[in-house]
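User: Predict the complex.
Assistant: Input components as received:
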Amino acid sequence: MAIEGLKDIVLKYVTKEYLEDDSEPLTYDTPLISGGIVDSFSMVSLKRFLENKYAIQIPDDKATPEAFDSVNKIATLVEEFVAKK
Amino acid sequence: MSNIGSYDERLKNFSWQIAEKELGWKPGDVLNIGWHCTDRICAQGKGSKVALHWEGFTGAEKTYTYNDIRLATNTIGAFLRGLGLQPGERVCLFMDRIPELYLGFLGILKMGGIAQPLFSAFGDESLFVRLSNAETSAVVTQKKHAPKVRKILDKLPHLRHIIVVDYDGVAPLKDREVAFSLEKAAPVEKFGVHPTLAESPSVLHYTSGTTGMPKGVQHVHYSLISQYLTAKWVLDLRDDDIYWCTADPGWVTGTSYGIIAPFALGVTQCVLDAGFSAEAWYKWIEKRRVSMWYSAPTAIRSLMKAGDEIVKKFDLSSLRHLASVGEPLNSEAVVWSEKVFGKPFYDTYWQTETGCIVIGNYPGMEVRPGSMGKPFPGITGAVLDPSKNEPYPAHGKIGLVGLKYDWPSRMRTYWNNKEAFEKKFRGGWYITGDRSKLDKDGYFWFAGRDDDIINTAGHLVSPFEVESALLEHPAVAESAVVSKPDPINLEVVKAFVTLKPGFAPSKDLDLDIMNFIRKKLSPLAMPQEIEFVPSLPKTRSGKIMRRILHAKEWGEEIGDTSTLEND
C-alpha cells in the first residue's frame, strides 16, 4: 500500500535533520547508512520519527542498516508496518 | 610461529630497545612518525608495495603504494608549510575516512605540526570545545563538513585556515577557506621533514572526562616505539598481511593502529569508508583477502546479530588472526567467532591515554573468553586496592586497574590541563578509571568503570557534557545522564529530564531533544532514551545523585541514601 507523500516527508525530514544547509540534495536512492549520512546511532532518532509520524512500531530486528539505507527502502519498510496496523 | 613467540620468554628478556633497533633509532636521533611510516619503508626497497587500498561508499577505489604515500605526505606537508603553519601548531583533521585523512595525518607530522583528528560526526558544539581548547590553527576538511566549522568560526580567533580537500568550484570559498587537491597538486619529491625528537608533540586526541569538558591527550613521536611493537606482537602483523582496522581515525585506535603502526611495519592495509552492514563487511574481507582484522565488540555483536548463514555466503578463508578493542569483549562473541570464522577474536585493552595496547591476549597464549588478557611485556599492570592504592596481595578481588607509567606511548599531559593529568596518579600508579580482577594465572577480567563515564560502542561519553548541552534546550530545566545496558553497544546514553513550566512531555519533544543533542554534540552522545520526571534525586546540598539513577537502570542496589534530599 503506497502512502501518499511518504517519500517526500522522509526526504524532507532527513534533509532537515541530517544534512548541513549547503549540502548536495538527496534523492530517493541516495545511500543514507552506507553513505555515512545516517549512522547506527542516528538511526535511532530516524526510527523514532517514523514511529511517531505513522503510529507504528518497527522492531529492532527489522530496523537494519540495509532497511534504512535510502528513502525508497525506508518507505517500503514503513508501508509494510502501516499495512499491518 | 607468531611474531611474539613465547609470551613468557618475552617477559624475561624484554626491552623497548628491541623496537628501537628494528626501527633504526637510538636516543638523541631525530624521530618523526611521518618519515618512519613512508620514506623509511621506501628506503627499505618497498616503494612499489601497496600501502593502502581504499574504497568509498559509492564504490570508488584508490590504491597507493608506499612511494605514493611518501610523495602525497610530502605534498601535504609542503602545502601546510606554505600556508605559514609552524612546527608545534595544531592542525585538525575533520573528515570522513577518505585517503586525505590518512595521508594528511602523516603530512602534518612531517612538517612538525601536531595532528588533531576529530570524529567527522561531531556537532558544532563538540567541535568548538575541542578546537578552542587546542587553539587550533588549521582545519583540514571536506566541503560537506565545512559548514559546521563556519558556524563557529567567529568564536575561534586562532583558526587561520580551513583547508577544503574536495573543493569543486561550484560555490565560492568563504572566510579563511582555501582549496587543496591532492590529485591536482604537483607531487613534492623532496621535502625537508621537520627534525622532531622523541619527546616532540605529535598527536592530540580528545577524550571525555567525568566532570570537566573533554581533555586533549597529548602524545609524542616516541609513541611509535610501542605502537610498532604491540602491532607486531599482539596483532601479529606480518609483511605479507592484508590488514583491516575498522576504527575511524577520529579516535585513537584509528591513528595508533589504523595509520602509525601498520605503515611503520610496511604492511598493506585497506580502508572501507562506508557505514556498517554485515554483507558489506564480509564482502570487503573476501574482496581484499583480509588476513588480519582488528575490530570492536559492538561491530562483532552486530555481526552476530546478522546471523551465521550470511557468513557462509562469503569466502573468508584469508582471515588468519582477529583482534578486538574498545570495550570488554564478551565471552559469547569469542565463542561465536571460533564457530563461524574458525578462530577467536583476541581481546586487547588500552585507552586514548595509553596510546598503545597495554593488556592483551597474545597469539600462542591460551585465550580465556571474556578476559582482557595479560600486560604487554615491559608494561607493569596491577589490580589495586582502592583504599591503599597498592596491589591486592591475592587474586580474585575487584579493584582499580593501575599501570606503572613508563612505556613509550603514554600520554605526556592533558593539553593545557596539568591539574587533570596529575589527578590520574595515585601511589605511583597511573589510574585507568577501569575496574577489574585478576585470576590465579594473572589474566585480567574487566569489571566496569570506576566513574560515571559512559562507554558506548567503545567510545567514551561524558555525562557532564551531555547534561550541559541538555540545559541549552529551551524545554529542559534539569537533567541527569547515565548509561543504560544495551545488547549491541554495551551501554547507551539515557537522560532523565525535568521540564520548564509551559512544557509537557510528548513524543515530539522527546525526539526534538534527541536531535538537539545529536546535532550539538554527536550521534554517540544522543540519549537513546529520555525519561521525563517531575524531579531528580539530589543530595541535601543540591547535587544530583546520578548513582541512584544508574543503579535503577542496571538493576543494582541503590546503596547509601542518607544524604538524599527528602529521604
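Chain B has 18 helices and 28 strands.
Let me know if you want any component modeled separately.
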